[in-house]
## 1
Amino acid sequence: MLPDAVEIVEVSPRDGLQNEGRPVGTADKLRLIEGLIRAGVRRVEATSFVHPARVPQMADAEAVMAGLKRPPGVVVSGLVLNRRGAERAIAAGCDELTFTVVASEAFGQRNQGQTVEQGLLVWAEVSAMARAAGRRATVVIATAFGCPFEGAVDPARVEDIARQVLRSGPAEIGLADTIGVGTPRQVMDLFARLRGAIAVSQSGRPAMRAHFHNTRNTGYANAYAALLAGATVLDSSAGGIGGCPFAPRATGNIATEDLLYLLDGLGVRHGIAREAVAALDPWLAEVLGHPVPGQLGKTDAWPPAA
């Protein structure tokens, strides 16, 4: 059964921009975030607190947070991969810290220099730091559907990682199709396993979140499947921009405006003006120096204005 409403986490300022070859200035990042907030977005993954040598596009994380105007009710999150990143995110004023635990050893080593076991230990530490600072701690299991270096990931492994992650009491737990290889049947299976892990955990009932890339054009079908399977939080990126510096040929996220069109057709509330998000696409393409994958910004509004 579909939920009545879904929460959208806008990831274009972080996941959307991190793999772009052309540097995007702080002022343009702020313009993007503020445009999304005006459109009704209430959760924004604004940046990531990683070493600038690893992800140069995120070198201005503190400047983005310092320059951001946050109306009441808007939650701003930062991605962190280690204790130092968590310290920076807390000091910069993030409302929420999002941590990534990786489901494959090879990707974990390349993405954040950690084994899966080390990632779980760091997550527990980051979760405690966030709670002590009065911030939300959320976690996403990356490469849950497949790894560019190891291939298919055993669903039982993902389920076991989820059970260990849940011991540290995340406010929200997500599954990420980092390289866009998942299909709806896989999505239904993995989220059923995640539901089962949550049901027997001793740390409350965190919301289930889904993060899909559209590399093989299954992202929107996967989002629909995730909703049917109980997810109530979806990540998306304005214009469908995005990718991962450590995942070869992984293309963009599902586009926020296109996802909103789907949700509107399904009768699932989200609170965001889809045409206002789509209107950002031409400007985004100019800033990035290439067309964006999102479709709604390339066509007429529907239904037509009366």
## 2
Amino acid sequence: MDLGYAGLALLTFLENIFPPLPSEIILPLGGFLVAQGQLSLIGVTLAGTLGSVGGGLALYFLGRQVRQERLAAWAERYGGWLLLTADDINEAFDWFGRHGTKAVFLARLVPGVRSLISIPAGACRMDLLPFLLYTTLGTAIWSAVLAYAGMALGAEYGEFGRVLQWATYVVIAMTVLAVVRWGMKKRRRE
């Protein structure tokens, strides 16, 4: 398989735009190629970081097209079925304004949320430089860990990807349960 650095960068870019493509498989594969002597660990980490940051930027600029007032009006009109109100949208924007840099950095380390954080960062008008800095730092750590794991596991990289994919499902399920719990509490208060 001749994936190369450009192929890894492209796949991680696409993984950010279309989250069903799992970086948990892509980057350990790059690490496996490091173990085979075909690529370098630094090169795989840089390719993964570059592709992910590129995908994050695309979603950030998509988020910049969304206005808080427009989202709040939408929530007021249609948000009932999602248990969203205009106040919820405004509170979320305020929260992101206070904790955005931490949220961007930490979310880049969480499967299933990694790419999605770029949209609220753009929508909340987070400055581009801090967004780039925290996205790059979080993504570089994630890319290095996955590439190193693939290299260390060698031929067993496929098993690692399957385990991490299940971990992703667990994180997503926990997030969905937390949102459902929040919605139920909110309904009881009303």
## 3
Amino acid sequence: MTHRFRMALLGLALSAALPAAAHIEVFTTSMSGPAEFPANTSPGTGASTVTMDFDALTMRVQASFSGLQGNTIAAHIHCCVPPPPANPTAGVATILPSFTNFPLAVQLGDYDFTYDLAAASTYSSGFLNNAQNGGSVANAMNTLAAAMRAGNLAYFNIHTTSFNGGEIRGFLAPVPEPQTYPLMAAGLGLVGWAAARRRVRPA
């Protein structure tokens, strides 16, 4: 097998190891009171999944929460947290005053709604018109996606009557796609094989 062919095979395996659904990204978080700023002692917990489909230009927001001390008054995604030493909080990036049809005046509930990423109404006016985001829907979408990819710049926040600034929150972070692991392992295996072949090649 020629060196050029081995390198082509290696490149093919590594490219196949990239996410199969490269235009769909999933982000998750667990929410709690201690994760708020400032931290609180709420026994409430929650979880959220945000799925962005860049082909269909949709964002599906799913959440489940329980044990809150106060009744819900709002929920949304905040972005983007400034670098330290600033306070780890940010303005609201998504629709105001709350997610569409989010369960309000309750202490537990579930949520599932799909938004149009190409619609200005999906974003708060402050986030959409922020000069840093370029003042366009496309740039707002890309800024929000990049913040969630970072894992520590955008957070899901649930506000209640007991904690107006937020009773539970969690930073959204990307979820690796399980189907890519075998392909990535195969690609790395080929890297090792090629390196071994070079080591044992006669002088």
